Amino acid sequence: MADVVSLKADGAPSPLIVEAADGILRLTLNSPPANALSIAMMETLKAEILRAGADKAVRVIILAARGKVFCAGHDLKEMTAHRADADRGKAFFEKTFALCAELMLTITHCPKPVIAEIEGLATAAGCQLVATCDLAICTDAATFCTPGVNIGLFCSTPMVAVSRAAHRKQAMEMLLTGETIDASNAKDFGLVNRIVPKEYLRQVVDKYAAVIASKSPLTLKIGKEAFYRQIDMPLEEAYAYSGRVMTENMLARDAEEGIAAFLGKRHPEWTGE
Prior knowledge:
Keywords: Fatty acid metabolism, Lipid metabolism, Transit peptide. Pfam families: ECH_1. Belongs to the enoyl-CoA hydratase/isomerase family. It comes from Rhizobium aquaticum. This is Enoyl-CoA hydratase domain-containing protein 3, mitochondrial. The structure is a single chain. The protein is of the alpha/beta class and 273 residues long. The chain has two domains: 2-213, 2-enoyl-CoA Hydratase, Chain A, domain 1 (Alpha-Beta Complex), CATH 3.90.226.10; 217-263, Lyase 2-enoyl-coa Hydratase, Chain  A, domain 2. The protein contains eleven helices and eleven strands. The strands form two sheets. A seven-stranded mixed β-sheet has the order 1-2-3-4-6-8-11, sandwiched between helices. A four-stranded mixed β-sheet has the order 5-7-9-10. Helix 3 (90-109) packs parallel to helix 4 (125-132), helix 5 (156-165) runs antiparallel to helix 6 (168-177) and helix 9 (217-230) packs antiparallel against helix 10. The protein is globular, with a radius of gyration of 20 Å.
């Protein structure tokens, strides 16, 4: 992939390195060593995902990071600086957590699948970011934690994503102890899909992305939206809803083409309609 954007217009380093090729958009957090979710990082990441969601050329999004830490969560130095404000930082804290929620919802609502590529530590809101992505692939040296309880700040917003990705008791274990878990436990907990050796991480993630990018973009959009909508519905309601979704999907040109290609033993030609 060719590097598309790594500098801002003023020549300063961008919080993100943006690469695109063959329908795959790679967004690399570019603020080592912590790759913290500062206001600038969250605004930039949200804007790129929104843009990618509307870009027909993008089929899949990968979130990666430079350095030994995938993401250390919110920028505590940035937040602490606002304790000197007249309101002791209340307005800035509200802004930070609201923007973080907007970012996570932008990932969930994005019509394109989002894959997290994790090398190193994902902690607090960084762990939330991993849990929010549709798929997560990490190295065998990756680690994860929600350590807010250790500093008197329960990881309440990371809890929203982690409790929906991990099994309930494992999520509570992470939240109550603040302890770091390794890649193997993260997979057992349900936070990541696969663990691969460091030297093969990008290769494996790119392969997954390429496989997904080869599917009908309309079908991926329909399926991702339906997955997140039905998952918290009562069983009967989920079946009724998914039945309506499949009916509409069957009427799409891509479904007609895909089924005809399968029956005709040929490769489908997707139009996204």
